[in-house]
Amino acid sequence: FLDVDCVPGPDLLARYADVAEDGALLCGTVAYLPPPPDGGYRLDGLSRLAPPHPGRPVPPEGEVLTGGDHRLFWSLSFAVTAATWRRIGGFCEDYTGYGGEDTDFARTAAARGVDLWWVGGAPAHHQYHPVSHPPVEHLDDILRNGALFHGRWGEWPMEGWLRDFARLGLVSHDARTNSWYKKETADADRSGPPG
Where are the domains of the chain? Predict the structure, then answer.
């Protein structure tokens, strides 16, 4: 599986195929590319443009790190055998819009005894596009999908973004119910019905 805006490294598919085993969720490295130069990226030079993302393990080429932390999984680039896909059950289709579906997929994999492996030598390169931090354009999706994840697993995903939204005054957290709300909704709930 490769995200639509990622370019596979030349050995990505072969490397995943070489190490794939039933019961393993394979993740290669992902590098975030800078804006493309005039004429676009040169495919033979992608690996020199950006290092792999520092928030994930980066095993040396040819090595595999087993026993990975499922909380670090992301669906930008990963591979599983057909049997492992069936064991996990695929992605939960209740998620819509942005966020939470890959965290849920990894949580399901862990719950079903599927190990996470970081695969050296299977790079992908994420093409540049502007992003916002936090992703305020996805606020409604993150709240909806976060609530779905909370209902399934008892905790909230994307909490860093939720805290960032709270600092911006966009959301509130209700500690009694461990729920996050859009600020106007939270304020209206606390003030009671009008009149």
Answer: 6-126, 136-191
**Per CATH, which fold does 6-126 belong to?**
Spore Coat Polysaccharide Biosynthesis Protein SpsA; Chain A (3.90.550)
Which single residue is written with the structure tokens 């599927």? 114
Contacts of 141 (CB under 8 A, 6+ apart): 96, 97, 98, 99
Q: What is the pTM of this model?
A: 0.90
92 DSSP assignment: -
CA angle, 96 then 99 then 26, to 5°: 110
Q: Which residue has the tokens 């520092």?
A: 54
**Per-residue pLDDT tens digits for 106-165:** 999 999 999 999 999 999 999 999 989 999 999 999 999 999 999 999 999 999 999 999
CB-based contacts of 49: which residues, under 8 Å, 6+ apart?
Answer: 31, 33, 34, 41, 125
